[in-house]
Structure formats: structure tokens, C-alpha cells
Specification:
Mean pLDDT: 81
CATH class of one domain: Mainly Beta
Low-confidence stretches: none
Order of helices and strands: EHEEEEEEH
Distance between the termini: 46 Å
Radius of gyration: 19 Å
Strand content: 25-35%
Structural class: mainly beta
Largest sheet: 4 strands, antiparallel
Amino acid sequence: SQVKSENRKTIWNAEEVPEGSEFDDTWDPREQPEYQILFKQCVGTEDVFFGMSSKDPSTACCEDVVIKIKLPETKYSDIALDIQDKVLDLRTPKKKLLLHLPYHVDSKNGKARFLSEEETLEVTLRVSRKFDFVNFV
């Protein structure tokens, strides 16, 4: 089999490098916080009682991804959060989280709130899939 390459000196193709790998830092000693990834659906009575829409309980029919990150002993002002289309990058003085998201998200229109009583950051991101305009009218 032949391998096509534009430049013979390249080690790998751009398609082989996972998205968000530029954020990886193996030498950073900060620990990774505990987190949960949850999926959220907008359903109405026509979905729950009558089954009139084509929605099912799978993640393929979810509109939002909710990431809950435990950040004990952290103040809101210490949190640095960067969201790309497929990557969530969170940094605090004691914790670091680089999370490759399960779906592409709308990185410009997310919501984040810090629940100080629970010491948890809750990030809600809208999933942006191709053909959602057809599936979820």
C-alpha cells in the first residue's frame, strides 16, 4: 500500500492529530477535578404522553451537554474557562481539566455558573450537529 504525503518530512497528517491536542500539557502537576457529563433534552407533553415527535431517550436526541465540575476550595475569580467546538479547557490554581467533548458544541453561546455552596462549576453547551435543523424543527 502506498501512503500519499505532501511533504516527505512530516511525521503524521493533520487528520491524525486529535482536535484540542494543542492544549495538552503532560508536565503540568495540577490534578484533574471530578466531573460529570450529562445530556439534556427539551420535551413537552406531546413527547412524554403522546409520543408525537421522533425524539427518544438517546443522546442523539439531546440538545444540550451539561458538564458539572467539582472544584473544592476554589473561588469563582480563580477559574479560567476556554471552550472550543470540541474541547473544554478549565484551569484553576490547583486543578486542570482538558476535556474532549462527545459532540461538537456551539462554543459562542454557552452558559456557566458557579454553585459556591456545592463548590461546583456547571457548564451548559448547545450541541451543534449537522442536520439538526431537519431533525429538531
